[in-house]
Design goal:
With about 375 residues, the chain is mainly β. It has 1 helix and 25 strands. It has one helix spanning about 120-125, and strands at about 45, 60, 75-80, 90, 90-95, 105-110, 130-135, 145-150, 160-170, 180-185, 190-195, 205-210, 220-225, 240-250, 260, 265, 270, 280-285, 295, 300-305, 315, 325-330, 345-350, 355-360, 365-370. Strands 1, 2, 5, 6, 7, 9, 12 and 14 form an 8-stranded mixed sheet that branches. Strands 4-3-8-13-10-11 form a 6-stranded antiparallel sheet, with no helix packed on it. It is rod-shaped and about 120 Å long.
Length: about 375
């Protein structure tokens, strides 16, 4: 006979009355000392924990290997969930439980990874690799209504989320449950990512899900759950189903706002009518651009991006979102003597970017009258 995970090893040969252990298997016989917690006592932790703050980098993984103490931060278990509600927070039995235990509820089980369905109770209890699992029953909001839920504090600055989950069939029974994988940003409106149908065989199955852009850069809570939204089909007992090694991946969003650099203040421009002024040069650049940078000169000035061709505008061609070069500015040979040239702006612009300006000096900009020679 295989003994219970937590059976007390008796020192006396005298028969003792037997009692049912926490797994409901009827094989346990541990003696409980007065004022002492039994090793088979259900140590429960209320499943209401702080949301997960995603770490730096591009991934998050939960192995559930510490559920012998409590649920991981951000994880909760629920009963009575529906397509539009989160249900009621339930409790987790943190004591290690045998796969074939028939008592319902959320419990700490050995993972199917690295094991076989024939593993003894002692082997299961000694395995460090754990899984968060549930034994369903028709009462208590477990069938339908059982759910495992992860709450993220936010996904700010992150895009392109994907998720991998190991679905685990730990005790296969005649009834079959289909589990639905969903996410929500409200807790009331849920989007389906996929389903996992009971395969009828013991073991672990890894499945991958894509969120598309559904949870990209969300500033508030995001909920991800695996839920039994419909009742099990068939007759007889229900499975022990669990999850293990849940992993989220994402891309950290870089700045996509077009930016122009090149604001400056010019020295005074002076010339004689009929002759262009001396050229002043300025560095211009742009990043994350969707179009070229265009420099537009105020009346009386002209600009050039190559130092050869001057006109009212000059263009810096963007390639791969970047553009740059040297902008030359001068008073045009045709600038009127009576023109106003102080504090005028050469504007640098590109769609979606905040414009930058090269501003002429507040005074001293002038065009002198050309001497008439007879």
């Amino acid at each position: 006979m295989v003994r219970s995970l937590f059976e007390w090893r008796r020192r006396s040969r005298r028969p003792r009355p037997r009692r049912q252990d926490s797994t409901g298997s009827g094989t346990g016989g541990r003696r409980i000392a007065p004022n002492q917690h039994s090793a088979i006592e259900q140590l429960e932790s209320r499943a209401m924990l702080a949301a997960v703050t995603l770490p730096a980098g591009t991934s998050y993984t939960e192995t559930f290997d510490t559920i012998g103490t409590a649920l991981p931060v951000g994880w909760a278990v629920y009963t009575g969930v529906t397509s539009s509600t989160r249900g009621t927070a339930a409790t987790l039995t943190t004591a290690a439980t045998a796969w074939n235990a028939t008592t319902s509820g959320f419990k700490n089980y050995a993972s199917a990874d690295g094991g076989t369905s024939a593993d003894t109770l002692a082997v299961q209890g000694g395995r460090a690799d754990r899984a968060l699992a549930v034994r369903q029953t028709s009462s208590g909001g477990l069938d339908p209504g059982a759910a495992f839920e992860l709450e993220l504090a936010n996904t700010a600055g992150r895009t392109g989320f994907g998720m991998t989950v190991k679905h685990q069939m730990l005790d296969v029974q005649p009834r079959s449950t289909t589990w639905t994988v969903q996410y929500s940003t409200t807790g009331t409106s849920w989007t389906n990512l996929g389903t996992y149908a009971d395969p009828g065989t013991w073991g672990s199955t890894a499945a991958t899900y894509s969120f598309g852009s559904g949870i990209d850069n969300v500033g508030g809570p995001v909920y991800v759950r695996i839920a039994a939204l419909a009742g099990a089909t068939g007759s007889g007992n229900r499975d022990t189903y669990g999850i293990d090694d849940v992993s989220l991946t994402w891309t950290n969003a870089s700045s996509t706002t077009p930016t122009i650099t090149g604001a400056a203040t010019a020295a005074a421009f002076t010339t004689t009518y009929g002759t262009p002024s001396a050229v002043q040069s300025f560095a211009v650049s742009g990043t994350s651009l969707t179009a070229d940078i265009v420099a537009t000169a105020p009346t009386g000035f002209e600009v050039s991006s190559d130092g050869t061709t001057y006109g009212p505008t000059a263009t810096f061609v963007q390639t791969g979102g970047s553009a740059g070069g040297t902008l030359r500015v001068r008073l045009a040979a045709t600038a009127p003597v009576a023109g106003a040239y102080d504090s005028r702006s050469v504007v640098l612009s590109s769609p979606g970017a905040t414009s930058a300006a090269i501003v002429t000096a507040v005074s001293g900009n002038a065009v002198a009258t050309k001497t008439l020679t007879i």
